[in-house]
Fold these 4 entries.
Entry 1:
Amino acid sequence: MFGLGPQAKDEVRRVLLDYYAYAGAHVERIAASALPSVEAIQTAIEEFDAAGCDQLIISPAVPDPGQVDLLAAAVKHTKVSQSLLVH
């Protein structure tokens, strides 16, 4: 899960805490695992690529179609196998 933009970090946290409330004590860890920045997304993609991942699905936590454009811009400058990015 990711969220980008000026208010995204707080909004992603709020959404995940609400959605995963049933997880009890684990909800904080789930919320902390979100990718709240371009750098976090790029690092995660590079780490999955280095581990041999050939397909990666990153979903927005914020229900805003503009998140897809922000993700595309973040991924554009990631140095990984193009087969991981193009599906």
Entry 2:
Amino acid sequence: MTHGYMCLSHPRTYRLLDLPLVDLDLVLQFVNELLETLLVLSVLVRLERQLLHAPVCLAHVLLRLRVAALLVVILRLQLANLGENKIIV
């Protein structure tokens, strides 16, 4: 019994027992840094989306107005074409 206790009291034995704990600590630090980086990235993506939301909405509205104006022009041309056909007939 005394021999086993003396073996554990040796400083080198403590170092060998500490290695798995040091390894675990390093892994936990790495995971912490990775999660922090992902958090920052998600915040940046969210802010960029909010920043670009207004210009994209404006472009979408302008596109709808352009399509509406084009449809009005097409309708007027069709009505003019119908009017000319009636005069000819």
Entry 3:
Amino acid sequence: MKSIKKKIVASFIILNSINAIQAQDNIIINATVSGKIIDEVSNEGLAGAKISIKNITNSTTTDINGDFGLITGQNLPFTVTVEIAGYESKDITISERNVLIKLHHNYWWKNSRKYRFF
């Protein structure tokens, strides 16, 4: 009788372990967002801008044309932070799958070349 109980318990543990592993492989993707980050004055794409979901570690960067794609398990809407040197960082609530984000120059950064500290 004890042998049968041990086999049943062992089988139960193995099946639960297999289900847990399969659940990890079946990640549900709720949103794929793509878009472009541009300079608000010149309308040129900004390469190397970082787009990160607020309070989540998921992030991406723009390509040479300012285009990006972000795949996440978050449901729309969610908030992203956009950052790039020389521009003011911006928090934006994303509610559509395709977005255009305009960034404003940080004039302190642009003019800081005048002031050398070394």
Entry 4:
Amino acid sequence: MSSPIIATAAAGAASHGAAAATGAAAPLLSVRNLSVEIPHRRGAVTALHDISFDVAKGEILGVVGESGAGKSLTGQSIIVSHGWCMQ
């Protein structure tokens, strides 16, 4: 059985300081400083480091990268951190 993945992030629609100051609408999704470490027998491996982005209402975010770049892991980490996954 593998060890759990450790994800740390300040994710959610909670970081609205700039939006409130300018009168702009708050983002539907705001991800700040998303980092993921995967435990390994020789120590933790950093899979994602310090990823931040916002997605506004009506906006579409496309994530592009090479195989193994962390696209799926980014999405999975956001889903888990929001409790949107079913156990």
